[in-house]
Design goal:
With 239 residues, this protein is of the alpha/beta class. The protein has five helices and eleven strands, in the order E-E-E-H-E-H-E-H-E-E-H-E-E-H-E-E. The two termini are 28 Å apart.
Amino acid sequence: MKGLLFLYGETFRTGGQFSRNIGSDESYTEQKKACESHVSLVNHLNKHHSCECDVIISTYDTQYTSELASWYPRNTKLYRYSSNNVMINHHDCLKETSLEMYDFVFQFRPDLYFKSHFIHNIFNPKFDEIFFFSVCSASKNWHKTPKGNPRINDVMVYIPRRLKGFYLLRPSHNIIDVLPKHIFPEYIDFMVYEYYDSDSQKDLNPAYKIVNRPESIVTLTPSERTVPWDYPIFKNKIK
């Protein structure tokens, strides 16, 4: 089995959501811990699932960008952009990659620190559908899109070979509202059937935390932990 880990987005950023404090000395240690957790996932997949993984990183330039790639396996590809082009389409680099060789593509933010529970108990390289991490927190109805569909926790997405036509899919909160209806619910599932806000500074998450910001000690949806399958889009989903 062969997989691709595609890390796209901002690195070495401190200050919480919407902060533009980029590349500071204070960001170094936490970002390195996040990267080490990604390598731990790669090593776990190789050892316990006989799965080899390539890594592609797409991020903007900082004083530490050259060092960033050295923390990953030797064959890692790094695509660098200037900091004033943060909104560039990071998937351009995937279009330059021969994706046919991969059994899955796992896309995620590079500032995620994967906890042991995610590496050993949640992530499965044999997922056979498009897997998002979870539905967003049910607090203040953040779990529903404007059309009443499940609002996605958008920090990661797993796409298997059999659905490789979606390898360029980029997760967003309201993605279910804009993708073709025939994709859902047949091809969609979640890694955990619980509600979690994307931002671990707002909502304590057992699987990951976003580095260089405080981690919440509060669970936003403490009394309603199972995702209901009664969204209209999932009415015929086999449970």
